Amino acid sequence: MRRFLRNMALLLAVAFVLHGCFKETVDYTRFHLAIYEQVDGEGAYNPVDNVDSYAFAVDTTNWYIASWEDAVAHRITNKTTGEVMDEPAEVGEFNSSDEYQATILVNSPISMLVVVNPELKLYAYRKYELPENLPDIYAKLYMAAWRPTHNSSGWVVVNRFYTTEEENPDDEPVTE
């Protein structure tokens, strides 16, 4: 009887270990973003009312967004060859009533994530390396319209329309 119990315990232990080997792996991430904007340096950060988000299956080392118009048009450019891509691998979803308003599904090993704020004429981008078995990421992005291009929690927030008061003393609109 003792031998039987020992063999059963060993069999159960092996079955438990093997069960872990056959689990499904998750090869995607839903990247949930809570996005906040600040219009001036004295104001509060408020949740955005509208953003556009998308992802390309490329590395930011080799690709960039050449202009504000390109960011809006979902267009990126290769730094070396000048090749242009304008069809993202994924386009995000936006729901202003959610705490994390934007969600981008990422399923490429390396991606360039992009968020465009049309009201403030800002865009942000980052490189994202897909982890294994991490189906959901929750992150925050702070975009400040009163600052020049800046970093925010792993994102580069680009402000192509930034000017100082000395550069634009008459408060005339600045165009790109």
Features:
mainly beta; six-stranded antiparallel beta sheet; five-stranded mixed beta sheet; 37% strand; disordered C terminus
Structure report:
The protein is built from two helices and 14 strands, in the order αββββαββββββββββ. A hairpin with a 4-residue loop joins strand 10 and strand 11. The strands form three sheets. It has a six-stranded antiparallel sheet. Strands 1, 2, 8, 9 and 12 form a five-stranded mixed sheet that branches. The radius of gyration is 23 Å and the shape is globular. The protein has 176 residues and is mainly β. The C terminus is likely disordered.
Brief summary of the model shown:
This protein has helices spanning about 1-20, 70; strands at about 30-40, 45, 50-55, 65, 75-80, 85, 90, 95, 100-105, 110-115, 120-130, 135-145, 150, 155-160. The chain is mainly β and about 180 residues long.
